[in-house]
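Human
Can I borrow your eye for a moment on a structure tokenisation matter? Give me a protein, with the fold worked out from its sequence. Write it directly below this note and I will take it from there.

Assistant
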Amino acid sequence: MENNGNLLTKRSFFWENIGWLTSVSILIYLKFFVHELWKDEWQAWFVAKDKNILEVFSFLNYEGHPALWYLYLKPFTWMSTLLPLNEEYLLSFAHLLPAIAVFYIFWKKFEIPDLIKSLFCFSYFFIFEYGLVNRGYILVILFLFLAVLYFQKDKIKLLGISLFLLCQTEVFGVFMAAALGAYLLLVNVKKYAVSLQYLIVGGIVFVISVFPRESGHIARTQGKILSFGDRIFTSVQGNITNAFLPGLTDDTAVFGWTVFGMVLAVLVLVLFVYLFKNYKQIWVPLLLVILMSTGFSLFFFVGGIRQWGMMFVFFVALLSLAPVSFYQKKFNILLLCFIGVVQSIYGITAVYQDINSPFTNAKETGLFIMEKIPEKVPIVAINKFEITPVIGYAKRKFYELPSGEPFSYFKWVEKIYMPTQEELRLFAKFKNVGGLVIISPKKLDPGRFSDATLGKEFIGKNIKNENYFIYTLAVK
């Protein structure tokens, strides 16, 4: 965009560099000096670390995510076994690299006014959910942004490769790739035939590698806690109101819906249609992605704010394709500024909470175990799903029953097994120790575990309200 014109639509080489460096500096500080890794962050790391490449592919149907994030993490897990490096920081560094690239494209390459960029870079999704939290969603943004960039540079094959890789990030990456395919069809189907071929192959590979084959898979059951009517309204509000205007409803980050939230959803859609009424190539892909994601939320996985936020990310990518004339209209700028202000308030609030409260009490628990509990004392976990992050910080594997095997990661389809007190004692005898330690995310039933002694509890204030209790059980 040209540097002349209204301040609201102006772009500055100086401001772009300052914006990019500031964004990256904030991320580095938060990642390495503030943020505590959550179970979903550790889960991907342990899958990549403890499984070979073939085993990773065979495990995907449990995860519901394509292979790309795990394959990307693999070299970093090798580094952790070869060098005395902290796994927490290695994972954060691995995530930081694509995040730096994302902010570089956003600030340096996208034709969006600096004022809008300044507001959007502090949005909940860019600064917190996808920038700070170390999950594979950052690859969705990277390959989405690369696809847009290669389209603008008229690099057909690289565009196609980006669409293929976008399909290997998340199911939402497939939706975005398909919507971009619709964009290419509207622009010039013959010119982009090769790119569309890559897209089709990418979609096929995604289905083959990820399609859940487990009948009890969470994707098929997660939404059943809601009635069909509630799922409809929750899906609509989540993918529209909560994605674009987070924080304006009390249930932004949880299941549920309100009349106010639904009114906002309708209003947002109407405003978007008006905003892009003269740019069919933009509003068609945007509505397609919202429709696909809402349908997925309704019939497969209701999701949460980290999934719904993909709608906002796609919106930002499409904004970079808007012509100069789009940003010369005051209404357009004011609407984008309003969305940016709402996003920034919610994003800065989330960062403030992360600075003042840990994500969970996993780090404190893990450090206690590492310092106070000898390696020879076996630790049995109750509920692998909740205990995984403690393993990361304790730097040792725990045991599960009834298998009696050490573990690091969990399977989404697994049911929680509650051993008896006698089973725990038999396991301690098998390990040839005089007693063992039990770790649980909740207090144990004193009637069921009458001889277990509560040794330490970790119940301090934390964002996810995830606490841990450590018991000892002697062999009699």
Q: What stands out?
A: Strands lie at 379-381, 398-399, 406-407, 435-440, 453-458, 468-474.
